[in-house]
Amino acid sequence: MDKKSIKINFYFRRLIFYFWFLFIIGISSVTIIFYAASKGYLGTLPNTDNIENPAMKVGSEVYDYNGILLGKFFSENRTLITYQELPRDLVNALLAKEDIRFKFHSGIDAKSFLRAILSLGKKGGGSTISQQLAKLLFTGTSAKNKLQRIHQKLLEWVMAIELEKRYTKEEIITMYYNKFDFLYNAKGIETAAHTYFNKKVSELNLGESAILVGMLENPSLYNPKNYPERAKKQRNLVLHQMMKYNLLNICRYKKEVEKPIKINFKIQKKDFELLTYYGEFLKKEIQEALDEHEDKTGQKLNLYSSGLKIYTSIDAKMQDYAEKAVKKHLSQLQILFNHFQKKNKNAPFLNISPEKTKRILISAMHRTTLYQDLKQKGLTEKKITEEFKKPQLIRLFTWNGAKKVLMSPWDFIRYQKSIIQGGMLSVESSTGFIKAWVGGIDFNYFQYDHVAKTQRQVGSVFKPILYAAAINELHYNPCTKISNEKFHLGKWSPRNSNGKYGGFLTLKDGLAFSVNTISARLISQITPGPVINLAKKMGIESIIPEHPSIALGSADLTLYEMTGAFNTFTNYGIYVRPSILVKIEDENGNLIKEHIDFSRRQVFSEEIGYIMLKLMQGVIKYGTAKRLQNYNFIGDIAGKTGTTNENSDGWFIGMIPNLTTGIWVGWEDRFSHFENIKLGQGANMALPIWAYYMKSLYKNINLIYHDKLFFHKPKNYQSHWDHCNENRIKEENIINEENIINEENMINEEKKEKEIIDFDGYLNSENSNDYDK
Known about the structure:
CATH architecture of the domain at 421-582 and 598-764: 3-Layer(aba) Sandwich
Largest sheet: 5 strands, mixed
CATH superfamily of the domain at 421-582 and 598-764: DD-peptidase/beta-lactamase superfamily
Radius of gyration: 36 Å
Strand order of the largest sheet: 2-1-3-13-14
Oligomer: single chain
Number of helices: 29
CATH topology of the domain at 421-582 and 598-764: Beta-lactamase
CATH class of the domain at 421-582 and 598-764: Alpha Beta
Distance between the termini: 102 Å
Strand content: 5-15%
Number of strands: 18
Structural class: alpha+beta
């Protein structure tokens, strides 16, 4: 062998040595790195529980009483789907575009990895679907620093292998699609299908599937809403890959690539489930149930991410009827109010000075986000006020729909205070289940809830609680007669709205005509204490002042409290707290909570409950709610109207044997109101809403609320009580038709004066009823 051959042989053996040396070193290094990564030496890895139960935040679905989906509570708008729901084209498109050898590797595709290394990423990345899922689940956003990104890649490799060990290929594909964020609050493929094409994922066609798969590379860059041409090129690339790997025939490919991009974009509102007034109340009930479940089992469930199924007592049809009834009446009432305000230079406020008006508007201005923004920028109070008086384009609420007008924020505040507001709550008598909850006229413009949050003076609608206390404490009956003479209790001199006094009235007539002297004499006999105690037992938690004027409704209470209290009458003396939550199930259908009302309690006897229903039937038949007869109702109806100082609030609570419905109507500010008692009384402001609502219920034969229901008479009720006032109509010197209309309760002048003096305190108090606070 010559020297040249020996030299070549030497270098060849040396080359072989170095090759194997570097190969072994490389393999050993990779092995050591993988071992170190798997043991967590290169960074914290998810534990076994996290791998076996990867974070997949799924919102909780909320259903009505009949199983109709009302909305969701969620932090991420995601609906989980199964592999069987994925169209074949959607699966094939994913494999063709992202990982054609997915079914044959164990998390890492060596061929794709080497190709990516040698081409410096120009011929595609080396990440498998499993690695991409590991990135979505565990490592998150790619680091910009190269060394940090390499570190992330190592962890993703390890996690990809771990995922492959624990899940089938179908499960990995399903998890990947469920986890991916397609933007516009579309978390997961099901929500994406609804967002971009307004259809279920199972209904996606080939082109739509290719568009969504094309977005996987970069959902912002290839978004069909913002960049349709770019999205089309990406879609066609996906289709080409499918054809390349024989997952799509050439004829179908050529036909599909020529089609334009078509989407039916419908953004899924982030707070869809909250766009209703009872949302906060429902969330509170749910959280109490979840806390109780955690105390018992140790299992912590999250309303926004645990995929719960929440069943409520709300009846979607009844809710719709209630909302329509509110809108129908208040839109008509608004026309009347606006008409009478045309001559009012200080509209919409009545009987207050310009100085007080200015204080109201300034106080409202201080509560706006615009004011807070300007204040944060360092503007003085004077400059901010000047900014508020500059016209700008404002989206305005009207009863006929929104419209944009040029208006200053200052005038906008005044405009808002001219809009009539309302609240309505409908409760099933025996269960306390809330069937309809209307917290305002339009949640898009007025988010404050007038059912559970607004505390307003209740007026004469409080009188049935007083009468029940008198019957309970003094053992009175409907025929008990009370003097209607003028009455003084210290400095308090209650007045009847018709200015007429004298003679005696039965309890039934006293309540039917809402006679103030009768109520005043009753509270003087039993004192405020027992009345307040009874009110508390009937579910009223707000502060009731221990003052005789509460007999005429001077207390500020919520519609939720008053409707729950009246339901005690319909339920024959048993109070049951009005509730929405029926039951909660976890994502697997296991029962977490079923409604059991521990608040149910006997407040007074069945006989007293029936007596009060009979008294309030008199209110409907010939008293302050007599106009309800104009709607031609038949069957048993009981109820009570209420009107407060200067017609600021109108109330009506109506009851049929299996449903109690309360209504409040007023304005943002108490100084906005009708000047005329005929328009401003509860019988005109609130009662028609009840009538429209009940008419709709009675027409629906699928509901259990109809005119064939009757209040049942207890054994101890004495029938002659129904006939003790047959000569009532002849007593014209005491009662006349005027009093039927003028039902307003007249709170003592001393208190009325105090309300005016305390106006500034009212605006700034924590318990302010000026709900813009």
